[in-house]
Amino acid sequence: MLDAHALLTQAERQCQTRGARFTPIRRRVLEMIATAPGGLKAYDLLDRLAAEHASARPPTVYRALEFLIEQGLVHRIESLNAYVACPCPEHAHGFQLLICRACGRVEELHMDEVGEQLSQGARQQGYRIERQTIELLGLCADCHQAASA
């Protein structure tokens, strides 16, 4: 599980260094995502945020998510249409997401050579990659062990 306090502190420092505004709403959205056991969907975030801020609307959440993604603090899980906090936002290279289909746990891998090989193959075909999302669906160690028992 992520240390949400440490992640928020790191996010504040990173935004300050970059001159990006880490507003209270952006901070709260990141905190909600970081403390969730798996990914959170935008409307789940909206429901939680609306309980605290009556003025929260979908654009509020989507703008916060867009900012957090741009800053490398959050990843979008394409297959689930959900969002997960990045445990190491200082890592500027590619990543892969391991998603447990049983419990929803999400772990991040950093196999930069995989991303580079894909980019190289795309360049050879004349493509310019703008974004890579690699998601691996399976069972985490705990769920695999429980299924085997």
Automatic annotation (TrEMBL):
Cellular-component GO terms for this entry: cytosol
GO biological process: negative regulation of DNA-templated transcription; regulation of secondary metabolite biosynthetic process
Keywords from the named record: Cytoplasm, DNA-binding, Iron, Metal-binding, Repressor, Transcription, Transcription regulation, Zinc
TM region positions: none
UniProt cross-references to Pfam families, sorted A to Z: FUR
Cofactor binding note from Swiss-Prot or TrEMBL: Binds 1 zinc ion per subunit.
Top-rank lineage group of the source organism: Bacteria
Subcellular locations according to the entry: Cytoplasm
Cofactor field: Zn(2+)
Binding of Zn(2+), residues: C100, C103, C140, C143
GO molecular function annotations of the record: DNA-binding transcription factor activity; transcription cis-regulatory region binding; zinc ion binding
Family affiliation: Belongs to the Fur family.
Complex and partners: Homodimer.
The protein's name: Ferric uptake regulation protein
Protein's organism: Chromohalobacter israelensis (strain ATCC BAA-138 / DSM 3043 / CIP 106854 / NCIMB 13768 / 1H11)
Taxonomic lineage of the native organism: Bacteria, Pseudomonadati, Pseudomonadota, Gammaproteobacteria, Oceanospirillales
